[in-house]
Specification:
The chain is mainly α. Among the domains are: 71-103, no CATH class; 107-220, no CATH class. The protein is 41% helix and 3% strand. The chain has six helices and two strands, in the order H-E-E-H-H-H-H-H. Helix 2 (111-118) packs antiparallel against helix 5 (159-187). It is rod-shaped, with a radius of gyration of 52 Å.
């Protein structure tokens, strides 16, 4: 049997000694730590699947029906929503048949140049590709010019002739300004302020007023009878 000795200095030591008497080295035998067992990975459970809703069961939202809108046709000029039984748009007078016409590709010109062309009533609209509107404005301007000239050079120029001359002269100036403004709006992609149809109704009303005044004055005058 071998004698217990210090592992540091080799001196004899007792079996139950904890310290070496020579070098004071510790005689305790430290046990090697046991290797730790690898931690087990946590088990990942599959996510619980929610029960699918039965598609055949109607919900409260499905049962509520949205209010149905009455059928209509949109005006291609002013986009007003008109009833199906109306044949004309009450806003701009466009007929229902215009919906089936192919849109015309109007020529593009600068707005300032269109306004300059519009100083000659109807010419600016003609340059913008709106022949119908151009004809209406030309008729309005030429008619006002003709009636103004007729009453201005009347042989018996009374108060009524002066009033009618001033009225149609104002209409002539109005046609020049309106044509320039609306031609510029058309070239800018905007809507006209006054349509050709509205201008024609204004001219017809003014012309009718002039005819009534002339007829009324003609009836009111009594012919003078000379005695001999």
């Amino acid at each position: 049997m071998s004698e217990p000795r210090c592992s540091n200095c080799g001196a004899l030591v007792s079996e139950d000694a904890e310290w070496c008497g020579q070098c004071f080295a510790s005689l305790r035998v430290e046990s090697e730590p046991e290797p730790e067992a690898p931690a087990s990975e946590p088990e990942i459970s599959a996510p619980e699947q929610e029960p699918e809703q039965n598609a055949s069961i109607p919900t409260g939202e499905d049962t509520e029906e949205a209010p149905k809108k009455a059928p209509f046709w949109a005006c291609p000029i002013c986009q007003n929503e008109n009833e199906l039984d109306s044949t004309l748009c009450p806003v701009c007078g466009t007929p229902f048949g215009r919906l089936f016409e192919e849109p015309d590709e109007n020529p593009r010109i600068p707005p300032d140049r269109a306004a300059l062309y519009g100083l000659l009533p109807g010419y600016g609209h003609l340059k913008c590709g709106r022949a119908g509107e151009a004809v209406a404005r030309m008729f309005f301007a030429l008619g006002s010019l003709a009636i103004t000239t007729m009453f201005a050079f009347t042989a018996d120029a009374g108060a009524v002739s002066m009033v009618l001359t001033a009225l149609f002269a104002c209409l002539l100036l109005f046609s020049v300004g309106e044509s320039a403004v609306d031609a510029r709006r058309l070239a800018s992609g905007e809507r006209e302020l006054i349509t050709g149809r509205q201008l024609l109704w204004v001219f017809i009303g003014a012309f009718g007023l002039a005819v009534l005044l002339v007829v009324f004055l003609s009836i009111g005058q009594t012919p003078s009878v000379g005695g001999g």
